[in-house]
Design goal:
With about 280 residues, the protein is of the alpha+beta class. Helix content is about 20%, strand content about 35%. It has a six-stranded antiparallel β-sheet, covered by helices on one side. Strands 12-11-10-7-14-15 form a six-stranded antiparallel β-sheet, with no helix packed on it. It has a four-stranded parallel β-sheet with strand order 2-1-3-4, with helices on both faces. Strand 3 (about 65), helix 3 (about 70-80) and strand 4 (about 85-90) form a beta-alpha-beta unit. The longest helix has 14 residues, at about 20-35.
């Protein structure tokens, strides 16, 4: 449960989403009407013409994220840095990770300010290159062909020190259970209930008949080696944090991170209902 009568609430936004500034203004009005203070990043403060609201998220009770799942992913590192939970207000298409639509924002935010709700903690992946670059991922670490690279990308990957396979294709997705509904799913990976501590290994268009997605324990360390020139590969955590492979040793190690990220939930969410609503329903609407 978040602390009641919160005085500071952070706002994170995606400025490419239409209508975000209007929703941000309404959210600020809701917070101020409830006696709380909105805290926003410098860029949003400038866009709103409200420079007095710019400040640090230190001490905020939670961080409201205006956008879709991709926007939430960009807010993870900030939430971790200040040890605050995320509450997503869905302005995207699917919104699998978000908590509510803007139409329910007033009621939801007021409930959160009263201390209602609970924390839904999610496992993170930690990716480290052989030269020490590091990135955290809530959803996945994806290995793809670089933009100008032709042909297939040869990759070798292991788990727990034992080689799993050597493949050639479009790449590999190393995902968490949370990320099983994202890129891994599009590449043919399994759906996994978010409470499971595991790591998914999902090849992307592998040029072979035998390769299938695999699920390993979150206690295993996954090692991925690119068997081609390092510049022919692109490695990105959560679609927004690129890692540069060293030319002499193009290896990335992925393991369960010590940190976890928390989402502020107001209602218990049935994974299977949510799956049908978000991953099936929007296609036919």
């Amino acid at each position: 449960m978040v602390k009641a009568l919160a005085q500071r609430v952070g706002i994170w936004h995606n400025d490419s989403k239409e209508g975000t500034l209007q929703v941000a203004r309404r959210l600020i009005s809701i917070l101020e009407g409830a006696g709380a203070r909105a805290v926003v990043a410098d860029r949003l403060a400038a866009a709103l013409g409200m420079g007095h609201l710019a400040g640090s998220f230190e001490g905020c009770a939670f961080l409201c994220v205006l956008g879709g799942d991709g926007t939430l992913l960009t807010a993870v590192d900030t939430a971790l840095a200040y040890d605050i939970p995320l509450m997503g207000i869905n302005m995207g298409r699917v919104g699998y990770l978000t908590e509510m639509p803007p139409s329910e924002m007033e009621q939801g935010v007021l409930r959160a300010l009263r201390g209602e709700g609970f924390l839904d903690r999610r496992m993170l992946l930690e990716a480290t290159t052989s030269n020490g670059q590091r990135a955290l991922a809530l959803n996945d670490v994806a290995f793809n062909r670089a933009e100008r690279a032709a042909g297939v990308l040869p990759i070798e990957f292991s788990a727990g020190g034992q080689m799993v396979d050597r493949i050639a294709g479009d790449g590999l997705v190393v995902a968490s259970a949370t990320g099983s509904t994202a890129y891994s799913l599009s590449a043919g990976g399994p759906l996994v209930a978010p409470g499971l501590d595991c790591i998914l290994l999902t090849p992307i268009c592998a040029h072979t008949l035998h390769v299938r997605p695999m699920v390993v324990s979150a206690g295993e360390t996954v090692t991925v080696r690119v068997l081609d020139e390092a510049e022919n590969a692109r490695v990105v955590a959560d679609g927004c944090k690129p890692l540069t492979l060293p030319a002499n040793d193009p290896v990335v190690t992925i393991r369960k991170a010590r940190d976890s990220v928390a989402f502020l939930r107001l209602e218990a969410r049935n994974f299977f209902d949510l799956m049908r609503e978000k991953l099936i329903g929007w296609v036919h609407s």
